[in-house]
Every structure is written in C-alpha cells, then in structure tokens.
Specification:
The chain has 359 residues and is an alpha+beta fold. The protein contains 8 helices and 11 strands.
C-alpha cells in the first residue's frame, strides 16, 4: 500500500473542504456545517501526519544509504544504525495512523459518550468494584483533558456504587472507550472477608455514543414521564423539590431516571439524552445482528454478556480476553493508565478492518 498516494488524496480533499467552509451559505444548514467541520479537523490532522510520514521515510532512506557507504565500525555508521531504529518505529506509528484515516470514518467515534456501570454478581463487593471502575475512567478522562459529568448514581451500603451513569465529553471519546463495553471481572480479597479468601465479582460497563436528535425519533406520546423528590445524599435541598425525573419509553419498555441536578428541566433533558443514546445503541445492535456471520471476528461487539477483562489483584494482573494480552501493572491501570490495553485493541480493530477492505 503506497501511503503517499493517500496523503496526496487527503491534501486535495482538505483544500475542497476548506473552500466549502469559506462559503457563508454552508452554515445555513447546521448539520452539514458540523459534518464539514469534523471532516476538516480530521483531514488537517491526517495531512500533518502524512507530511511527517513522508519526511520520516526520506530520513530513513538517507540513513540507510549512509550505512551502506560508511565502514561498519565507524562512528557515523553507529549513529546511522541508532537513527534507523528510531525512525523505523516512528514510520510504523505514522503509517498506522494514516491507515486509520484510509478507512471510512465511523460517525460515532467523534461523539461524546454516555457510560453506564452496574455492579453484577458479588453483592457489596461488585458495587465496590463498580465504584473502582468509575474512578478509573474518571482518572483516564482527566489525563486526556476530557470532561466527566454524572447523570445518575445509586450508592451501596459500603461506599460502592450499585449503578452510575455519566457523560464523557471531549475529542475521540467513543473512539477510545467503546472497547470497554462488556463484563469486567475482579478477583480479590473483599474488605469484608475475614479469612483472606479471594472472591470473584463482576460489573457491567455499557458505552453509548451520545445520540443526536436526527439519529432517533422519539414521539411525545411514546413517553411516560414522572417526577419525584430526589433521595439519598446530596446536600441541602436535595429532598425539598420534585426534581428527579423518570422516563419510560412505552414501545421498548426502557426506563431512564436522572436525579443529579436540582432543576427538573435539566434532569428531564439529561434523561432524554440517555434514552436517545440507548435507543441508538439498540438500533445499531439490530443492524449488526443482520451481519453477524461476517462480524464474528470483530473486536468490541459491545455485548453485555461478554467477559472482556479480568482484574486479578493478588497477582497485580489485568488480562484482556479479546486480544489475549496480560499486564502486570494493575495498580497503575486502576489509576487510569489504561492505554496499554486500549492501544492494542484499537490496532487490532484497524487490522481487522483493513483486512476486510483488501479481500
């Protein structure tokens, strides 16, 4: 695959999009303007990566040529060998980034994301693990400059979370976090275990791209909306107004509750956002089911019953079962250093997709 041809293609398209955005009339259509703006940002980044790739290839050729001319034991030859090692790693990374750009962009990858974490099997320990996962994702979001905002949560007796729903806002949130969907298993000695026995518990994680109104149509007569007083910890005023909102989507039976804001209108708007995203996820899953035979090997199916990862605390080990990778830095991983697993998952997805379009 000659990536230079693709770099030229990206540059031509960038010029076209730039010209389109310079026309004030394009902003009469808000959706079209947003689409072009996203494409412009993507192409600008790809062109910059492409220029870096072409420069790296040229430097590699130069150093390889120097290595052939110089005596093997000379200082210049040694410097060339060291530079070749560095440049080859850089070329590989830039080539992978360009290959991602060749694939048709997934429109949901650039969207903000709603994450739902629920304690699974294991009672109080499962709720504690759910709280640990929430903290892990919050720490990861901080490192990437993303914004986290809680929509709803339900605390357990021992300080864990039976359930927490929150939004993550920023660049390429869904692109990176979509692989977190599934069942997460923890193996450790619970704080309540007097004899030091290791227990196994689980928590489920659902990662939903935030749906836009054009993605899913929700008719007012399909909704059963009720309000009530918020309950639980929350400071002064939490129980003084009917601010909590529950929405039932009658055609599907989906129930969404939002109570983290004191404003009833804000809670209603947020609940509708969650509902719309759940309906979009269901719509996407139905489409995917039609092509299940072709998609058996695809990473990140998002099935809730799929065990995706195991966190073994006694062994300081985290294992991702989809790509069979194991790391022995669980403490750092739980502090939000999850890229060592996310990056291989993204690379594996890229290889699968590239293989599909080259068949």
């Amino acid at each position: 695959m000659d990536l230079r041809l693709h770099v030229e293609k990206f540059a031509r398209r960038l010029t076209e999009v730039e010209a389109a955005l310079s026309d004030p009339k394009v902003f009469d259509n808000k959706a079209r303007a947003q689409e072009l703006s996203r494409e412009y940002a993507r192409l600008k980044e790809l062109v910059a990566i492409g220029e870096g790739y072409i420069k790296t290839v040229a430097q590699l050729d130069e150093n390889r040529g120097l290595l052939q001319k110089e005596p093997a034991d000379s200082e210049l030859a040694q410097l060339a060998r060291e530079e070749i090692v560095r440049l080859e790693a850089q070329e590989k990374r830039l080539a992978r980034d360009l290959q991602r750009g060749i694939l048709p962009p997934n429109p949901t990858d650039s969207r903000n994301t709603i994450i739902e974490i629920r304690g699974g099997t294991g009672g109080s320990e499962a709720a504690l693990f759910a709280a640990d996962l929430y903290r892990m994702y919050t720490r990861y979001a901080e490192t990437r400059g993303w914004k986290v905002e809680t929509l709803d949560s339900s605390a357990s007796d021992l300080g864990g979370l039976k359930e927490v729903i929150f939004t993550v806002t920023g660049m390429d949130v869904y692109k990176r976090l979509k692989f977190e969907s599934g069942v997460h298993r923890v193996q450790r000695v619970p704080a309540t275990e007097a004899q030091g026995r290791v227990h196994t518990s689980t928590a489920t994680v659902a990662v939903l791209p935030e749906a836009e109104e054009v993605d899913v149509e929700i008719k007012p007569d399909e909704l059963d909306i009720t309000v009530c007083r918020a309950s639980g910890p929350g400071g002064q005023g939490v129980n003084t107004t009917d601010s909590a909102v529950q929405i039932i989507h009658k055609p599907t039976g989906l129930i969404v509750r939002c109570a983290d804001q004191r404003s009833q209108q804000k809670n209603k708007a947020r609940a509708l956002t969650v509902l719309r995203s759940r309906l979009l996820e269901r719509k996407v899953e139905e489409e995917n089911a039609k092509y299940a035979a072709q998609r058996k090997s695809q990473v990140g199916t998002g099935e809730r019953n799929e065990k995706v990862r195991t966190y073994n605390f006694p062994q300081n080990r985290v294992t991702d079962h989809r790509i069979d990778i194991t790391l022995y830095n669980l403490a750092a991983f739980m502090e939000g250093d999850i890229d060592p697993i996310l990056e291989p998952l993204m690379a594996d997805e890229l290889e699968q997709k590239l293989a599909a379009i080259q068949v």
